[in-house]
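Q: Got a minute? One more chain.
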Amino acid sequence: MTLRAIALASKGIGRVSPSPLVGCVIVSKKGDVVGEGFYTFDGVTHAEIQALAKARELARGGTAYVSLEPHDHHGKTPPCTEALINAGVVRVVCPIEDPNPLVSGRGFESLRKAGVEVVTGIAASEASKLNEKFICWHRKGRPFVHLKLAMSLDGRISLNGSVSTALSGPEAFTRVHALRHEYDAILVGGNTAVVDDPGLTDRSGSLRRRHLVRVILDNRLQVEEGLQIVKTARQIPTIIFTKPENDSRTDKLRKYGVEVIATLPRGARDIAGVLAELKIREIQSVLVEGGAEVAGAFCDAHLVDKLTFIAAPLVIGGKDAPVAIGGRGASSLESALKIADLSVNMIGDDVEITGYPTAA
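A: Always. Here it is, folded:
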């Protein structure tokens, strides 16, 4: 039932940030599922409250399976712990603590003080992965960063020179938009914005609470009025980070609705500063889609929490074809990013490889 609660929580993807994903299943003392619920930000009502409302008196003497520690403080809603206790639930099974310092451990403590049995640790890995963005937000104090790159088998992201090159197949295209749906923001470099002229939108077709925010790192301020991201900036939030000395060139972009941030001393090269600015805007997660120098900057700064390569069955070759990750690179194998928890999947003819940098 814990996995069922986690599956229910996943229905809130794209609809809860900057809050966590939460699902709840109520099982009666006879062993029947009598109530289920999952949280969405706009719905306000928490998963536990939804599930208890469906269970009614059948919750008394039963068990609540919750994907994340129930909160014990007064926020937009009364404490969920109080609702569980008042409903007569005698056992709560929950895999992990809430990393939010307002909640962490207090929910479990309150339940135990009321005589409710609390079981933790079951399916903790699955629950942590589901809420990895929320956990990073609270534990690291910055948005979760997922670096995604499409490349050839020999690690090239385009042909020789700065030319727009679509490497992946249609199935990978669908997969990428499913990924975008999970994130609050999408980030590319100025060169990618100019060469590819991308829309940088979520075309998954799934419900989301807020627009996918478009973020461009562009110290040379290459972005101009004719690009899609500028022409649609009044409809879709668009942020450009650039150097302070470019501030006099930003007026035209701002007239189109682009938010230009030229206050960081190193501009777009200050990756930690960029993430801090995004956190102020309640952006909990960022999908970084390139190009090579942007990817290298995040890797050099050890500010990548998750990494996905989508490799097309192609070999491009040539010493001038750009590689997937630029930047300074590792000075030794010992200092290279170590990737753990690898998963490999076929997406049509392409190969998706995802893992977690252990030094992130």
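A: The chain has a mean pLDDT of 92.
Q: Perfect, thanks.
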